[in-house]
Every structure is written in C-alpha cells, then in structure tokens.
Amino acid sequence: MQLRYILGPAWSGSPLPAMTARSACRVAVCALLGLAALTGMGCGRKEAIPKTKAVAPAAQPPKGEGLSLRRQIESLTGGATRLVWARDMGKVKDAFANGSKLMLMGLDTRLPSGERVLAADQGNYSRPLFAPDGESVVFSRRTAEGPDATARWRSSIFAVPWSGGPPQLLRSGYAVDVWAEPDMGRMWVYALTTMRDGVGANPEGYRMIRFPLTQPDKEEVIWESGLLSGDNIQLDRAGTTASGLIPWPNAGTFDFKSGQFIRYRNGCWPSLAPDDSGVMWVFDGTHENLRLFLPGVEGNWRVPLGDLEVLKGKAAYHPRWSNHPRIFTFTGPHPVKVNQGSGRVSVMLARFNSSLTKIEDSLSLRNSSGEPDCFPDVWVEGGGTVSLERGKIGPRRVQELAALPRPAVAAWSARAEGLCFVWERATANNDIPGGKRSSSITPQRYARYGCRFDMLTEGGSFVVDEISAAAVRAALDGGAWSIEMAVTPLTTVAARPRVIFRAGPGLELQQSGADFIIHCSGRDWLLGAGISAGQTTHLALGPPLHPGEPPVAWMNGQAQELRIFEAAPGTALVESEGMEVQFGSRQDGSADWAGRLETIAINALPADPAIVAAHAAWWKEKLAGLTPPARTIVRARLKEASPRATPDSIGAYTRSWTSALYEKTALLSGPDPGATFGVAHWTLLDRQLLTGPPTALGDERELVLESMADHPEMDSEHGSEEILPDDLTLFLDVGAPGPAAE
Question: For a FRET experiment, which of 327, 392, 661, 678 has its CA 20 to 30 Å from that of 208?
Fold first, then answer.
C-alpha cells in the first residue's frame, strides 16, 4: 500500500516512513471503523466506492489545500467530501482537546477555498461531529473547575452550520455521535452526562442520553449501567448497536434492544461499522494491529498497520469511521507518548479493501500552518447508502465460519457429554442424562431464590450435592473441563474480590469491581469484563491450552484474553485449601458475593465454541424480552404485623416470611404503593432469625419494595398474610436481609 503525502497545494509523491505498534494501532482503529461499516450491510447497494464525480476546475488553485489535494481526496473517497477537525493553536500539547486554544476547521472538496475556519473565536472544540446530512457540525465545550485530581468537568453541546457562523448552544452534556432515523429521518445527538470528576485524557460519564438535534430539551435515557468512555461511541445504521468502552480498557458493543454490553476484549478506540454489518474492531495492546470481529463468529483476524510508512516510529490518534463503511480518518504522526508534544500532526484519510483485511489507500492532508490537528470527522456524499456485501468480510476462514448455519436455540439445554453438574433454575429437573441422578444445591445462611427462580447469593451461598461435587473435582483433576453460567452481580463496589464459584483449590471464579478473576492452576488471571450491577453476562471457561498459559474464556459468546492479576497490596484473597464446591462464597462464609446465577453446566470435556455461541445467542434473545420488576423506595410507618414464625414452628421448611401493614409517609422513588399497603418480610432464612419488620407499632423505616405478583418463587415458601385485607396490594421487601438484633 502506498501513502500519498500532501504538502501544500501539490503531492510530493514521496513515500513516508514505517509505523510503530502504537501508530499502527491508531491507524488500524480508523481503518477498522471503515472496515466494519463496509462489511455489514447486506441490503441496499453492495460494497463499492462511489465513482468520483466530475470536479469543476477552480480558476486558480488556492493556497494551502489546493485543487490537487481536493481531487486526491475525492479519488480516495469516491465523491464530494467534507472534513471537520479541531486545530491546536496553543503550546500545551493539547492532543485530547481539553484546553481553550483550539480552532474549529473545515474543508469541502467542492469549494475552492481550501481549509477554512467554521467558528471565528478560539475556544474548546472537543470532538466535532457531522450531522448525517453533512449540513451542520455538533461539538462540545469542556472546562474543568478545581485542581487536576479532583477537577469537576462542565461540558456543553453546540451546533454550527457547515456554512459557518456563531455556534448555537443546545444543552449540557458531551456529544459522542449524531445518528439519523432510517431514510434520513429525525437526527438524534447521543451524549454523555453526569461526567466523572478528575482530569483524564478522555471524557467519561455515568449516563448516555439522546435528544433530537432540533429539540435539545427532549431527552431520552439510553444507558446508565456503569461508567462510559467518550471514545469511541459510534452507532450502526439501524441505531440498535454502538461501539464503546465501559470504561477503558473494556471494549465492546452496546446492544440497546437487550440492554446488554457485549465485551470483546481489552483495548482502545473501538469502532463499529456505520452500516449494519456489525463488524467491530479494537486496537490490540501493542498498538501495532487491529483485531476485527464479526458478531456470532468464533475468532477474529489481525490487520497489521506497518505498511503506513508515515507512522514509522510514531503513533496515530483520533481514529473515526466516516459515514461510508470503507472510509475513515485519524491524525498523525504523534510521538508514542502523545503528551510529549504533537509537532506537525495532520488529518489523515484511509480506505480499506473490500474484505477489510488491509488498508488499500491513504492520504495525509498536511497543513501548511504547522499547528497540530485533532479529532477529525469525515462526511462523504452518498456514503450513508453504501453497504458491505455479507460473506466477503475477513480472511477466507472467517468467511467460511460466517457462512455456517447457526440455528436458533429454542431453549437452554446443557451439553450432555461429560456432564458433571447442571442447574438451570429452581423449577427445572436439572437431570444428568443417562446418569440416573439429578444435580441439587442447598442454600445456606441468607441465600434464597430470585424472581427468575435463579440463585440469589446475597448474604449466603449454595452448596452443590456431594455426588456432583465429586464429579466436578474429578474433572478438574483430569485436566479436561468446562463451565458455563449466566452471572448477574448486584454491585460492582467491593474493597476485596468476592467468590462467585469455587471447586476446591483448583478453580475459583471471583468478582473484583467490574472485572472477573479466575484462580486456576495456582495463579490469578484477570478478565477485564466491564460488568455492571444488574447486568447479566453469559460466561464460559475452560482449562489452559498449554502449561503456564491462562484459562480460556468467553463472554457473551466472544473469546477473551486474560492476563496475570496484580492485586493492590492487602486486597488479594488468601488461597484456600478447602475442597467445597459451591456458589456465592467459600465454605467459611468469607468473600461472600451478592448476585444471581442461572443456566449452569460443568462438563468433564473442553468447551465447544459452537455451543457457547448458541447459548450466548439464546441469552441475548432472552434478555431482550425481559422486563425487571418495578422497584419502589418508600418511607412508611408500621400499623400492624403478623406473628413471626420460629425455627421450631415451620416443620421441614427452612425459610419463612411474615406480613405487615404499613401507611406511607414519603414516596422516595418508583411507583406509588398507595396510602396503605402490605409488605412480606423474610423472618427466617436457613432457619436463622432475621430482622424482619419493626416490632413496635408506629415505628418508621425506609423500605425497598417490589410487587409480590412479580415474585412467583415466593408461592412455595412458608409465610403468612392473615392480617391483610384481600383487596390490599402486597409487596416483597427486597432489601438485603440481616440477623435479628440481640
């Protein structure tokens, strides 16, 4: 591949130098964005670069970006092209556009003026974005108040017409993408809000919203499950999926239909093709290669960037896909350590080949001013109608895998071969085929079943029956094993790792914050998962392929990379020698984990990637149709309470609840339960007395409630609602249970 290098009005034709890993990574990211878009579109036109339209010659080539440059841009993109970017006019090495010495620049290949200023004043112009029709530019202005470590970010979103003029304030927030409803309908701005404090390289927020470009006060919440990075959120054409980081380095895609984040691997600058091919790329850790992924296809492929000689020994930054699935942009060459200064950094354009396996053409828009450029975006006329041809994306092996039939899974079913333990849910048979036995679990302490008849380990654990436990330990000793489960944490805040599952000293699955840790073969391996409280993740594990290597792992059907876990001093778990096989804690109750588990299978055979992918697809479809129970938080005063059961009064039962009548004093959040309502409180779990309702009439407390009608698992539990009128709504107290006061 040749890189055409433009200096001033003419092309020198000189080749540019080879690139470093990091440079390659940046370039690759941009390229991948174009690649993904290209691959995915199965409808509309097949992938193709639109033929270049005739360009009316200028009477006299202007200074700087001249006629030659404009023609070369259109030769690469295939049509009329517009570019926008921020130019750093200061001397503070502002590659991430955090300062106030920036200019908003633009270039239109159908105008003879060359590059021009879109907004007259210097200021903060962070991440300028084209509207899908190319007629306006949306950007954000960021300022920080206070010292760097604790600085509080203020961010506002503006729009400016492509023809230029004073920017118009839209609203607060940080814009990350602009998307149009199919067939160029209403245009929506996607933005982060509730920004994270502290000065970092890139903006991060706890909430993603969207609003119509022409109605900025009409806000819709899109995502609020965990911390989100502003790099690099890009939607597909249908608007159902977006690339992103939650936060760096956990790269993957947001599935807006199911509310699930599908993690692909650790990396930076993830991007999703702008068509509907679903192609996703992530920069690898060396910053020398792009790793490309097709949804639902096992494996990925590498796109080396070393052919871009202009980046040799340097780096690329700010990669972004254009509206055309094969065209992307980035800036370079940067120092490998970008904060050391930018120098003569320019906007660059690139085009992927039709299979997205290499970059087939690229171009540097070397500006004559010498000031570095950052955060470019590109709009190509007609690019939003181009689609990649399915079946021609990636190397031959990936194309073959993508062509294999993948029948939908009607129901989750454990793999029968080598099955040691199976537990789908509390109401399932959980039989071992041909083994003439069923797997079972015993809840201990405050463990109980959830509304999906799943294991709810909050304050307790579930112990596996001894026959199944012996089969699991034998599989681990034999070296051939696999485990899969659906994991839903209740929190991601904990000072030390928590134990999700343990099978003796040979295998332990833990949660540490937003990540999984796998203790295997005497070592701790980190799976940077980016999990969020309340979010279900389909997880599959297997033994290392070779001694000294990490175990294999899949999340939501995608193969993952693991690395040695380096715990902060005093936070790592001490290795335990206990032989227990259980979920939710260790045998002594230490490192207890709060969460939900279901569809669990442990086999004495390596994992089958096809089964893993099928079960992950089943879970994705299942989650898309699930609506969690509505939750109410209320302050209320006790009016009447049923007598509590005692361990001696419940016979063979181990759990019991009792009812109480309350009157509302304050509604804090959620649906209104009414002036008076009934509440079911757990009073016995594992035959242990709990706090239950307040004992004195008139006592007031805060309650976290869900409708009893949304908890069918309670139908089989011992309980009493004798004091409640038949027409009174009954709620379940879903707050964390605790021991009875001494």
Answer: 327
